[in-house]
Write a structure and sequence with these properties.
mainly beta
Length: about 140
């Protein structure tokens, strides 16, 4: 499809379709915080270990459940940058749409980073996004 044709199609669409991604975001309460309970920054762990997720100021709900002030966790492993905040998170993150608050994972030997991102019922980050600090661990 040519650029001109795309521009014409967008011009003919109702505004609600053009801004659909923005409408998928849910508000997060002021002060909401996502964090990794364990391991902690700088820890050395075995090849298999449990990551425990923390959340303050919001509740955990499974994906698909549209309840204000809730979301579900997504874990970014060795991410160079966060996923886009205006669309569903893709394969760059581990999804915990069942409302899980911990997960046993296995990583190869070496240094790795972990970071949590809370997603709403559409797997889209909240507005503003609820993102943990990035931690670094060593797998031995």
């Amino acid at each position: 499809m040519t650029y001109v044709l795309r521009v014409l199609l967008i011009a003919l669409l109702p505004a609600s379709f053009v801004h659909a991604d923005e409408q998928m975001r849910s508000p997060s309460p002021e002060g909401a915080k996502s964090y990794i309970i364990s391991p902690v920054d700088g820890d050395t762990v075995g090849k298999s270990f449990t990551v425990k997720f923390g959340l303050k100021g919001m509740g955990v709900a499974p994906a698909g459940m549209n309840k204000s002030g809730t979301g579900h966790h997504h874990l970014l492993v060795d991410g160079k940058k966060l996923p886009a905040f205006d669309k569903p998170m893709g394969k760059s993150v581990m999804h915990f749409g069942g409302g899980q608050t911990e997960k046993m994972i296995e990583l190869p030997l070496g240094k790795h980073t972990l970071q949590l991102i809370l997603g709403n019922h559409h797997h889209v980050p909240h507005n503003p996004p609820v993102v943990s600090e990035k931690i670094t661990i060593t797998v031995k």
